[in-house]
Amino acid sequence: MTTHKKKTIQQIKALLADVETLEALEQHPDRIDTRKGVQAAFHSRRKQLEKQAQLIEQYVAMSRYEDEILNAHPDALICGIDEVGRGPLAGPVVASAVILESNHQHIGINDSKQLNAAKRETLNQSLKDNVLAWAIGVATVEEIDTLNIYEATKLAMYRAIENLSVTPTHYLIDAMTLEKLAEPQQNIIKGDANSVSIAAASIIAKVYRDDLMADYAEQYPGYDFEHNAGYGTAKHLSGLAQQGVCPIHRLSFEPIKSQYRS
């Protein structure tokens, strides 16, 4: 009489890693194995697949603005635009312009502020490696103080567009209107959470600016720029109180304008 040796729990876990849908998981032949370790492995894989399904559903929902444009203009080159750094007391405002590749699937993309640093870094590299085009635009502290932050943000966005290697036919912009653009544009409130193109721009801009502020932290120590990215945290304000302003502080912003400007 031939007996079949039971699979080990590790073997079953390895098999479950290749299961890609919830339907396939429920039909898996090892599902009837009552060992606690096996049932725990199925439970864990089910949670992973459910999370993946939610991320895919979210990605589809965040593609609706792009899909509307592509349904009417199949050859459209849609550019998502977002900025990072309107609120800090120090550092430039940075904008990014991104044209996603066709058949893009950057699952897990979201407003950069909703992602942890490791996830942002992973998505940032994936986007840069795969999108049709991306570019950065920067408006300096001096331009922020001269123009005001709203106009400086527009300037950074225009510069990002000018730096693209591909000319867009349509624009999706996070909560801004760029009057100088001739092509169709759509202003989307909370665009970084509602459009994959704008979310992509948000991620690239944030990683770029965070890295820039970490470099500034070495040049201008004492303000904790590497952790606060120029925002008015307790350590940043403490540094201001002890050292005064440095060359990348925004002199037109409070409390610098009234308390620290010489």
From TrEMBL:
Compartment(s) where it occurs, according to its Swiss-Prot or TrEMBL record: Cytoplasm
Residue ranges annotated for the RNase H type-2 domain, each copy included: 76-262
GO cellular component terms attached to this protein's record: cytoplasm; ribonuclease H2 complex
InterPro entries, A to Z: RNase_HII (IPR022898), RNase_HII/HIII (IPR001352), RNase_HII/HIII_dom (IPR024567), RNaseH-like_sf (IPR012337), RNaseH_sf (IPR036397)
E.C. number(s) listed in UniProt: 3.1.26.4
GO MF: manganese ion binding; RNA binding; RNA-DNA hybrid ribonuclease activity
UniProt superkingdom: Bacteria
Pfam families: RNase_HII
Species per Swiss-Prot/TrEMBL record: Staphylococcus rostri
Cofactor(s) the protein requires to work: Mg(2+); Mn(2+)
Keyword ATP-binding: no
Protein name: Ribonuclease HII
Residues noted as binding a divalent metal cation in the record, renumbered to the chain: D82, E83, D174
One example of a Gene Ontology biological process annotation: DNA replication, removal of RNA primer
Cofactor detail note: Manganese or magnesium. Binds 1 divalent metal ion per monomer in the absence of substrate. May bind a second metal ion after substrate binding.
Function: Endonuclease that specifically degrades the RNA of RNA-DNA hybrids.
